[in-house]
Amino acid sequence: MNRFAQIAQQPSTPSTMLSSRSFSSFLSTPTRFQPSRTLGARLSSPAATATATATAFSPLSSLLSQKAPSQTRSFSASASLGVRRVTFRPSRRVQKRRHGYLARKKDRNGRKTLIRRTLKGRKELSW
C-alpha cells in the first residue's frame, strides 16, 4: 500500500516516471511514427540517427523499430547459411527404405514398377 501511495503522490511527467518506475513504464508510453524516415536515411548516418531516435522515441520503441540482421537478408542467402551435410554417407537401410520391395508394395506407382519388372523377367524386382 505504501508503494502505491508514493507513485500516486509523484507528478506524472515523463522524466519522473522513468526515474521512479521500472521497465514497465516503457510499455505505457505511446510510440510515435514518422513516415519521412526511410531505411536508406537510417543506414546513411547511424550516429545522427541514434541521437535523433533517442530523443524522439522512447527506448523501447527505438529498439523495436530497428531491424534484426537476419530480417534484412534475402531468403536465398538465409537458406545458404543453414546447416548443410558435409559428408556423403549413404546407408543400405535408407536405400532399402526408399527403393526397397516393401516401399514399392505400399505405393501405387511402386506396384506398377514391380509388375513391369516381373513381366520383363527381372530376378531382382527391387532392393
Automatic annotation (TrEMBL):
Residues 11-29 have a biased composition (Low complexity). One of its GO terms (cellular component) is mitochondrial large ribosomal subunit. The keyword tRNA processing does not apply. It holds the Pfam family Ribosomal_L34. Keywords: Ribonucleoprotein, Ribosomal protein. InterPro entries: Ribosomal_bL34. PANTHER family: LARGE RIBOSOMAL SUBUNIT PROTEIN BL34M, MITOCHONDRIAL RIBOSOMAL PROTEIN 34 FAMILY MEMBER. NCBIfam families: rpmH_bact. This is Ribosomal protein L34. The lineage of its organism: Eukaryota, Fungi, Dikarya, Ascomycota, Pezizomycotina.
